[in-house]
Specification:
By secondary structure, the protein is an alpha+beta fold. The protein is built from 23 helices and 12 strands. Strands 1, 2, 3, 4 and 6 form a 5-stranded antiparallel β-sheet that branches. A 3-stranded mixed β-sheet has the order 5-9-8, covered by helices on one side. Strands 7-10 form a two-stranded antiparallel sheet. Helix 10 crosses helix 11, helix 14 runs antiparallel to helix 21 and helix 19 packs antiparallel against helix 21.
Length: about 475
């Protein structure tokens, strides 16, 4: 009975989007967006764009699941809008990062009881009914365990797995959604929406099962336990199931609050993010594949807590070696070596090579933080320019992109690189990024004081990829 009433609650909240039976939640959002676009007012581009953005966010927030996750991705990557309209859309979409509409307390309590076998008041010594954060697949509650530990309890929205799998089964849904998003603003860069849709689809599919997320988080926690500036909350496996995840409670500044801090502190946080994401690949072959601004807690001592391990990539040594060699060839400006690496990987066909200079130009643009004069400052305006150059088929590297067959690993890496660059750009982080690369890839000396702490933690043998 509880399951039926919970499901009915979600249907009641989703149905007004379209008012037609037989559509998934995602299809309802897309249909509504199409109608709104056709009937948009024409009393000035700025006002019309702001209304379109607000309506878009409202529908994504109510739909939850696949399309809301896609909207979150767009909120910090900025694929679909450009120029004067970008701030309008990003300001509206930013609300999806950590202010998604929550489910009612009784619905969350019913889900906890269904998963843990008893009401929250019996399972926990304390359980706050109102969530502290609500996102695309679940929401988080403060609680205290029976033995007195402060924990965060992530509760999946009832019925969301069924709704997400229905949307994922629709191969055209996400592609259509991104096409609509791009079409809201004239003149935006062209994007391979099917490739983007496939990547988002795979990532969301990984996040549905909280047991998978718990294993991922535990693996990172085991590697980083005691690290001087990276914090990973410990998982309480006794109170974790497929739809409820309980972990050590962590408090700190959210992304928007962190943006108001002094630049020295933002620079340190930026280096911590950079070292965590790329250092994890090179040292342990693991990739936290969701660089979303809502997945960090920033602390005044310069440390960062990382959250949300629903999507984690494991890389084999051969793939890590490919990444290291590609970076080395790019920074060295050796296009012949770079082409040979790409041919061997299968990304390019030697029988149909790109124009001279295109491959090196694309990689030097992509790895701008390493190829630019150091120290280098990530900046929003440059991030936008780089993104357009990287993925615009009509841009300077269009002929390279038309020939490049990006394998799934590289699709993930490129998306993460864009996401991380976007976050660092919002922080306007300045750092010796090429020095950090040399520290990892060539076994060079620590580039900064944080590097000295990192080496002390990992040991000399883990400074660079083997």
């Amino acid at each position: 009975m509880a399951e039926r009433s919970v499901r009915g609650g979600r249907v009641a909240r989703t149905a007004p989007l379209v008012g037609l039976a037989g559509r998934t939640a995602g299809e309802a959002v897309v249909a509504s967006l199409r109608r709104r676009m056709r009937g948009a007012d024409d009393d000035g581009p700025d006002a019309a764009s702001r209304r379109a953005a607000e309506r878009w966010v409202e529908r994504l927030g109510r739909s939850k699941g696949v399309l809301m996750k896609a909207g979150q991705l767009m909120s910090f990557v900025g694929f679909s809008v450009d120029g004067e309209y970008q701030p309008v859309f990003q300001q509206a979409l930013a609300r999806l990062q950590d202010d998604a509409p929550p489910m009612p307390p009784e619905m969350a309590a019913a889900q906890v009881e269904a998963e843990l076998g008893a009401p929250p008041g019996e399972v926990f010594a304390e359980f706050e009914p109102d969530p502290i954060a609500a996102a695309s697949i679940g929401q988080v509650h403060r609680a205290v365990t029976r033995d007195g530990r402060r924990v965060a309890v992530k509760v999946q929205y009832p019925g969301v797995e069924r709704a997400i799998r229905a949307d994922l089964a629709n191969a055209e849904l996400l592609a259509t959604f991104f096409q609509i998003g791009g079409g809201m603003v004239r003149g935006g860069p062209r994007v391979d929406v099917r490739r983007l849709a496939k990547e988002v689809s795979e990532r969301v599919g990984d996040e549905i099962d909280y047991l998978t997320e718990a294993r991922n988080q535990q693996e990172f926690a085991d590697h980083y336990r005691g690290h001087p500036f990276v914090r990973i909350p410990e998982v309480d496996h006794r109170l974790t199931t497929r739809r409820v995840l309980t972990m050590e409670f962590a408090d700190g500044k959210r992304h928007r609050e962190a943006l108001l801090a002094g630049q020295d502190l933002k620079d340190r946080w930026g280096e911590v993010l950079f070292r965590f994401y790329l250092g994890s690949i090179r040292r342990i072959g693991l990739f936290h594949a969701d660089p979303h601004p809502g997945n960090y807690l920033f602390h005044d001592d310069g440390t960062v807590t990382f959250l949300d391990f629903g999507c984690v990539k494991h890389f084999d040594p051969g793939t890590v070696r490919y990444m290291v060699d590609t970076a080395e060839a790019t920074v060295a400006g050796d296009e012949e070596w770079l082409l040979r690496i790409q041919y061997e990987r299968g990304g390019l066909d030697p029988a149909d090579p790109p124009p001279a200079g295109a491959t090196l130009g694309w990689w030097r643009t992509t790895l701008r933080a390493w190829t630019a004069p150091q120290p280098y400052t990530y900046a929003p305006e440059e991030h936008s320019t780089i993104t357009r150059a990287e993925f615009g088929l009509r841009g300077p590297y269009g002929e390279f992109l038309r020939r490049w067959r990006m394998d799934p690993d590289m699709t993930t890496l490129t998306r993460i690189q864009l996401g991380m660059s976007a976050v660092l750009s919002q922080l306007r982080a300045t750092g010796e990024w090429e020095g950090i690369r040399r520290e990892w890839d060539r076994g060079g000396p620590p580039a900064t004081g944080l590097g000295e702490l990192d080496v002390a933690f990992w040991g000399e043998g883990a400074v660079h990829a083997r």
